[in-house]
Structure formats: C-alpha cells, structure tokens
Amino acid sequence: MQSTTQNTGLQPPKRCIFDSSYGVIRFSSLAWLMIIISFLGFAVEDIWLLITKGYANNRNMYLPFLFGYGLAVFAVFLFFGTPQDRGGLIGVDRFFSGWKKTAVYILQTAVFVSIAEIILGTSVEKLCGFHYWDYTNLPLHITRYTSVFTSLGFSCMISAFMRFCLHPSLRMLGKLDSRRFRILGYILLAALLIDYFLSFGYMIRYQDYHFVWAVYI
Predict the structure, then answer these.
(1) pTM for this model (two decimals)
(2) Cβ–Cβ < 8 Å for 56, 49
C-alpha cells in the first residue's frame, strides 16, 4: 500500500519533531520558520513605530530579529496545531468542527498570547526595572501588559498564518532543504538565541533599555 503521509519540510524521518496532519517535519524547517517570523516581527514593530511615532530602532536587540515572535508561533503550533487539523498537544478546538473550531482556536490562542505577554512583561519589570510596554491607555486592558483587543488581534494574525501560510511555508522550506541550508539555519537560530540572552543581560545589568541605533523621519 502506498504511504499517504505528506512530506512537509522533511524527506527522511530522522531529525524530525513530530508527525502532524502535515506529515513529518524537520527541525531545520521549523528553525527557518522561527527565523523568518522573528525577522517579520521585528519589521512589523519598526514599521508601526515609523507610522505612529516617526522613528524606528533596534527593538532592544543587536540583530534585526525578535525571537519572541518566532518562539510564540512555534509554541502555538506545538500546543494547538492549526485551525484545520486535529489540534496540537493541548488544543481544545479538536472537540469542535466548522466555524466553531476556528472560533475556539482563535480564543485559545488569544488566552495563550495574554498569558505569554503578562509573564514576559512582568519578568522584564522585575528583572530590568522598567516597563517593556504599557497597554494601560487601551480599553479592556488586563494589567499593563495585555488587553482583550491586542490579544485577539495577535491571535487572529497567528490563526490566519497557521491556516493559510504554514503549510506552504513548510513545503517551500522542504524544497530548499540541503545540508548547507540546514547548517545555516541552525547557525542563524543559535545567533538569535545568543543575541536574545546578550541583550536581556545588558538590560538586567544596567536596568535600562538596550538602545543601539535609531532612525528618525
């Protein structure tokens, strides 16, 4: 009998992470996905700053990546899967179907985003002595680090990416797969992790934001 398992981002089943409804997925494909999303998160934040405040900066990092975005999307995929599959490790949307499944997926992702924002924001406040961001001027904020509207907004963007972009992205990364491509991905991912710890180490040591550069318009 011919196997019906899809091969998304992975040819042989070694060095894989798990078998989802998309098939076996390479660590390297997920690494590249986190790298790309981390860069997009950095770009989106700076574009928003340019539009609303007239400047862009390094976002407290040395490299133009915000690893939290890539890590968040990976965690959502691991825990909740995607809106159209059977769910990840703990997704409750698996008990629903149709539009109800999508609605529950968005809500559970919004709860995850809220919890992650509160943990990160509170941790930075305690360790670094300043407020990493502040939503207290927004309606329906929950503490200064999350709000109903921002959590639902991030959740809708993540859910749309999971629904329409994840599978094509993994298939594209799978087609690009080679030993050099995998090694480069691991090197870049390691660089992002080092940058993350170095930058937060600076903020913890000096109890201040980590400014490196800024562009004003």
Answers:
(1) 0.86
(2) yes
Is residue 198 in some structural domain? yes
| pLDDT tens, position by position, 91-112 | 888 888 889 999 999 999 999 9
Examine residue 16 and state whether it is found in any structural domain, yes or no: no
Based on the structure, what is the number of domains in the chain?
A: 1
On whether the CB atoms of residues 132 and 124 are closer than 8 A, the answer is: yes
- The DSSP annotation for the chain comes to ------BSS-SSSSSEEEEETTEEEEHHHHHHHHHHHHHHHHHHHHHHHHHHHSEEE-TT-SSS--HHHHHHHHHHHHHH--TTSS--SS-GGGG--HHHHHHHHHHHHHHHHHHHHHHHHHHHHHHHSS-S---TTSTTEETTTEEHHHHHHHHHHHHHHHHHTHHHHHHHHHHT--HHHHHHHHHHHHHHHHHHHHHHHHHHHHTS-----EEE-
Q: Which amino acid makes up residue 3?
A: S
Q: Which domain holds residue 92?
A: 24-216
> CA–CA distance from 213 to each of 47, 59, 91, 190, 210 (Å)?
15, 9, 40, 23, 9
Task: Give the tens place of pLDDT for each residue, 145-162.
Answer: 999 999 999 999 999 999
How far apart are the C-alpha atoms of 163 and 83, rounded to whole Å?
Answer: 6
Position 5 in a domain: no
